[in-house]
Design a protein that fits this description.
- With 195 residues, this protein is mainly alpha-helical.
- The chain has one domain.
- The chain contains seven helices and no strands.
- The N and C termini lie close together (7 Å).
Length: 195
């Protein structure tokens, strides 16, 4: 009888990934635990997130500033210089004043939720593609979340960013655990051969 073994780059890649299923599971469990810690300690997670973002911006601004002076003859020098100064100054402010940074970031996020939700709702209603009601529902939830965040400022800025980071870590961890479990359940390549 002919063998029923399928080959190809995709299947080969899946078999290679299957060998690392434990790493996916371990990383997923770690993310899940960190996410639970962030949700439980959402105020500390908010400040840690704001300060980390500040350091990233400060380092990015410093590197951008060095790069701007390295290519100072380029006609885009001033745009490069201004961008680097803006990133560096914003990073410094976030590190120096994390509470104000949390309020500002929450205000920006609330605005994105409201504007994005309104556009998603209007777009879904205008196009009326299959199951467009779910997009309308998603848009309405985004608008409501944005309004709640705005009306509860500055209190919402203390907990929301850490809570959102924690929920994202929990969902990402659960997805990685599920993916690792699915990889582990893939049979060995030899079992695809027909008898």
């Amino acid at each position: 009888m002919a063998t029923n073994q399928t080959t190809g780059p995709l299947l080969t890649g899946i078999y290679e990934l299957r060998k690392s299923w434990g790493w996916f599971m371990s990383f997923g469990i770690l993310l899940l635990l960190l996410g639970v810690l962030c949700v439980a300690g959402n105020i500390a997670a908010t400040f840690a997130t704001v300060v980390t973002l500040g350091w990233f911006l400060l380092i990015s601004g410093t590197v951008g500033l060095l790069h701007a002076f390295r290519v100072h003859m380029w006609e885009g020098f001033f745009m490069q210089l201004l961008g680097a100064l803006f990133r560096g100054f914003t990073g410094y402010l976030l590190i120096r004043y994390p509470a104000s940074g949390a309020v500002t970031l929450t205000l920006v996020l609330a605005s994105f939720f409201i504007i994005g939700g309104v556009f998603r709702t209007i777009g879904a209603h205008a196009l009326q593609y299959p199951h467009w009601g779910w997009s309308v529902f998603s848009g309405v939830v985004s608008v409501v979340l944005g309004v709640v965040l705005l009306t509860q400022l500055p209190i919402s800025s203390l907990w929301f960013i850490g809570f959102a980071v924690g929920v994202d870590m929990i969902l990402e961890g659960a997805a990685l655990i599920s993916f690792g479990s699915a990889l582990h359940q893939i049979p060995e390549p030899a079992t695809y051969k027909a008898a």
